[in-house]
Structure formats: C-alpha cells, structure tokens
Design a protein that fits this description.
571 residues; disordered N terminus; alpha+beta; 5-stranded antiparallel sheet; elongated
C-alpha cells in the first residue's frame, strides 16, 4: 500500500514555487545609496587616484597650451592630420579638460565621503572603554600563563589563605594596569565572575595616521585647485644683455589662473647677463653632450638696487613671489640690415630655435619697413659648421668653434599688415618671391661673425654682427649671443602643498609601522582553588610581533618561567 502523501509546506512569500530566489528591488533611493557607498569606499578612492595619475600622462607626451603654446603650433604644423583629432579630445589642454576635471572632482568627493565617516567613527572609538576581557583567553594569540605569587603573611599575623590569594590577585592586576598604562595602552579594570582582570588597547595612532594621510591628500587637491586659480605661468625668451619687466605686456605667452588679477604683478626687472654652457669634451663617446647650463641674472625691484641671481636647470630662482625656471637656451645671432644708402633699417638679436643636439638652429628675420618691399629671411645657424657627403651643412658640435649662418631671402608681403598675429619663428612665403636658395639658381647668403654681404637685387646689405669684436680673429667662442627661455611661475599654494606633503608622509609612516593591539591580563581561578595569571593579545590586521609582545609583558609583570598552558579541549 502506498504511503500517504504528506501535505506540501506552503511556499514562502519570497520564494516562488519553482525555487527561484527573488531579490527585492532597490528603487531609486537604494541605487543612489549603493552608488554613494561604492564611490566613497577606500578601494574606489585608490582607483581614482591611480586613474588621475594615468590621466596626467598625455600632458607629458604632447605640448600643452598652458605651458608651451609655440610647441602646440609646431605640433599642428608637423602633424596636420593627427593634431585635430588629439585636440578634439582636449589632449593639448589635459589639466583643464572635462575628463581630467571629472576624475579630479570624483576623487575629491570620494575622499570627503571616505574621511568624514571614518573620522567620526575614530573619535567615537577613542572615547569608548576598552572591551571586556574574554571568558577564554586561551583562544587568543600569544596566550601564556604565569604563577601568582602570594606573599607569606607577616610573622605574628593571621590571615586566611583565600583572602591572601584574592589580595595578591588584585595587586597583580593593579600592577598590570599601571604597567600597561605606562606602555601607552588605554586600560580598564574588570571584575567578572569573581576574577579580576585588566583590558588594554593601543595603536589608535595607526588609524589617526591613516586619517591624516587621506585628509592631507584631500588638502593637496584643494591647495592645487586654489593655487591654479590664483596663480599664473608666463614664458619669455631673453637674450644675453637684454632684460624684461614683470608686466603682462612683456611676456611672450601668459597663462593666468581663473581668478588671477594682473594688477597683482610685481613689476621687477630681470636681466640676463650671461648664459654659461658646459659640454662634455673628455669622453669620446659623449662628445658635445650638455653637462650644465647656468643663467646669471640680475634682478631689480621697482624701488631697489639690482641683485645678482643664478638660474639653473631644476634649480629655479625665487624672486618677488615668483619662481623663475630655465626651460631652454640657444643662440641669438645679431643681424643688421642696411638699405642701399647704408642706413640701418633693422638690427636685432634674433633667437634661433635648436633642431638637434649639436644646436643646428633655425630662425626667421622679418624686415617690415625701410626697404622698397618687405623682406623675410629663413636662416640656419651652424655653431660648428661641417659639410656632409651630400654637400649639405650641419653642425658637429654645439659650442661656437666655426659658426656659419646661411640665409634664404624672400621679398614681398610678410602678412603682418592685416592685424592678424603671426609667430616670430615662422615665415609664410605664399605671398613672397624667393630671391636666394632653393630653385632660384642663386646661392643662399653665407656669413660668419663680423662679415657683411650685399642683398640680391640691390636691396642693400646684411651683416652678421660679432658679439665680441675684440676677441682674437680665430676665436669665435663668444661671437654669438645666447638666449635663455624662462618660465616665470607663481603658485600661492606651494607652502600649503609642502605642508600637506609632509603630513601625507608622516601619516603613511604612522599607519604602516604602528600596530593596533589589545592585551588582557586576568587572575584566573582554577577548579582546585589555585589562581594563575593569564596573558593574551589580539591584533587588528597582521602583527607578527604580537606573541613576543605578550610574552615580554608577562615576563616583566610576573617574572619566572611560563607555566604549561591549560587550554580548553573544545578549542
């Protein structure tokens, strides 16, 4: 006979008959709460910090408009197809781009949402009492026992064995509490189930260091943001013997912060007296490699005397609230153009931009007035001229050993009369006639320091001036002036960034090397009536020195060899 079927249990309202588990719907508020918890987790903060570092990489791979506008223009000229694509992704304005700002703001919000709750919890933990002594210390790390020393009663006095043991136990626990407190522990005395004990904990400085680390990181983000808004960065090329005044009009390029007011500029005067360059001459495999560049300058305040200063690579000069950095250098040949009557119509030291390690340099000379037509010249300077097997010129050494200047001359419209700004380092020959070089059949003009030649078509003459005419005839080491490219930077948040950086380092070291520990000492009573001192500890996280610390404290407190630990069989 078949067994009667049992009535099926009613299905749970949360579990359908087919056995599938139905999760409750979060809803809009639930999803927002979930997203906030994910954003404010420490893992997300670290991920965003890494993402911010990765997002900053393109800023070092391509020139930025904020620091190298000429480099951006040159990049567009050299990469006409790729540059517009990169520009559409704001690769030339990385640090002000929408995607970089988004990562920056998310990291900012994540750190705030992470630090504030942890700080609140940490303050509550600091005010809380150390936890109660566990009933079974034998389950904890470093568990050890020591005998309780009960002093003999004084001669002529009578005292029960139980009272003497209890007094000795109380005294031992009081002594343990005092010693733990001296060691930096927070202590709390407990008397549970007739057993005296002391609970101690230390290492809250570890969490304090962790909070200091993240708070200082947040401070750096704030300081950099504020400093970028109120600071500025400007670039200026200065030739030896020339100077510039710290005013807005004097900069070649100027990038103010969003909240910067140019009325705050301190109009000091900076003159480049000399630029010293040292090149390798001993190591045959590194001949011509730069060793050191030193710009010797003088700085004069608006109402003060000139003071000397030195600017080196990675050694900026701090002056009048700004940092002056040496970005680059090169040669600036002094060129003089005269009309057919011998009158000077142009004379200037023109910076030529280096093209290779041996300072083969290219420059543009524009003569807008004084001649029948506007004149433009594209020149190449070879500090140590050498002829290649192809017949082309090049430089074999970056210093001035045998300097040669070649010029291709153009006549026509320079394109500067329409009010449209043009770069001093480029020449648009589309509206000009080439007179020398190229396919003209006329050799390019070739000059050495101190030489003068006639311009074609009777336009006049051109002179490559010798910057040191008193030098020996075969000594060209000072025949051409040098220029230095300076970056003048003002960041009012530098001091704060330094403070926060020190706090980050200090907080990190504390959080790494301060262990978080709890330790207990208990006068445990055995079934036979004897009392032993039990010691144990507990660490939050990895603490390889915990067991040794417990044993060392037990030896110090009770003395004597450890007793065999009587662990509970169930453990």
């Amino acid at each position: 006979m078949d067994a009667p079927e049992r009535d099926a249990a009613p299905a749970s309202p949360r579990q359908p008959e087919d056995g599938a588990v139905t999760q409750p719907k979060l809803g809009a508020v639930g999803w927002l709460r979930f997203a906030w918890r994910q954003l404010t987790s420490m893992r997300t903060a670290l991920l965003l910090l890494l993402l911010l570092a990765i997002a900053a990489v393109p800023g070092s791979l391509v020139p930025q408009r904020s620091s190298d506008p000429n480099g951006v223009s040159q990049y567009f000229a050299d990469n006409p197809d790729l540059a517009p694509v990169l520009d559409s992704f704001q690769m030339f304005d990385v640090y002000t781009s929408a995607w970089f700002s988004a990562v920056y703001l998310l990291l900012f919000v994540s750190l705030i949402g992470c630090v504030i709750p942890r700080t609140k919890h940490h303050f509550e933990a600091l005010r809380a009492r150390p936890p109660r002594t566990p009933a079974r210390l034998s389950r904890l790390a470093g568990y050890t026992e020591r005998p309780l020393v009960v002093p003999e009663p004084a001669e002529g006095t009578a005292a029960s064995t139980g009272s003497a043991t209890d007094a000795a136990a109380d005294a031992a626990i009081d002594a343990a509490a005092a010693q733990l407190k001296q060691a930096g522990y927070r202590v709390e005395r407990y008397d549970l189930r007739g057993e005296a004990s002391v609970s101690a904990e230390r290492g809250y400085l570890r969490e304090t260091g962790n909070l200091v680390f993240h708070t200082a990181l947040l401070g750096i983000l704030v300081a950099v943001g504020i400093g970028g808004g109120f600071g500025f960065s400007g670039q200026r090329v200065v030739v030896e013997g020339q100077s510039f005044v710290n005013t807005l009009a004097a900069y070649d390029s100027f990038n103010p912060g969003r909240f910067f007011d140019d009325a705050n500029l301190d109009p000091y005067r900076l003159e480049l007296e000399e630029l010293d360059a040292v090149y390798e001459t001993q190591n045959q495999e590194a001949i011509g490699q730069p060793i050191d560049f030193t710009a010797r300058v003088s700085v004069q305040a608006q109402d003060g005397a000139a003071e000397p200063g030195v600017v080196k690579v990675n050694e900026p000069l701090r002056v009048h609230g700004t940092d002056v950095y040496l970005l680059g250098n090169g040669y600036a040949p002094t060129i003089t153009v005269r009309d057919p009557d011998g009158e000077v119509v142009f004379t200037d030291s023109v910076p030529f931009l280096p093209q290779d390690a041996n300072l083969t340099s290219i420059g543009v000379v524009k003569v807008p007035d004084g001649l029948a037509d506007q004149l433009g010249m594209v020149g190449f300077l070879y500090p140590t001229q050498t002829t290649l097997p192809s017949g082309a010129y090049t430089s074999s050494y970056p210093d001035l050993v045998f300097p040669v200047l070649t010029l291709n001359v153009y006549q026509g419209d320079l394109g500067i009369d329409d009010g449209v700004p043009t770069s001093v380092y480029t020449l648009d020959p589309s509206s000009m006639e080439q007179l020398t070089g190229g396919s003209t059949g006329v050799d390019s003009i070739e000059l050495m320091p101190g030489e003068t030649v006639d311009l074609p078509n009777g336009l006049g003459s051109i002179t490559f001036e010798n910057a040191d005419p008193d030098a020996a005839a075969d000594d060209y080491s000072t025949s051409v002036s040098r220029f230095a490219s300076f970056d003048i930077h003002n960041d009012p948040s530098q001091g704060w960034v330094l403070v926060f950086a020190v706090l980050i380092l200090a907080g990190l070291l504390v959080s790494l090397f301060v262990p978080r520990r709890r330790m207990w000492v208990k006068a445990a009573r055995r079934p036979d009536g004897t009392v032993v001192l039990e010691y144990a500890g507990l660490a939050r996280g990895e603490d390889p020195g915990l067991e040794d610390a417990v044993a060392a404290f037990a030896d110090k407190h009770a003395g004597g060899p450890p007793q065999p630990a009587k662990r509970n069989p169930s453990t």
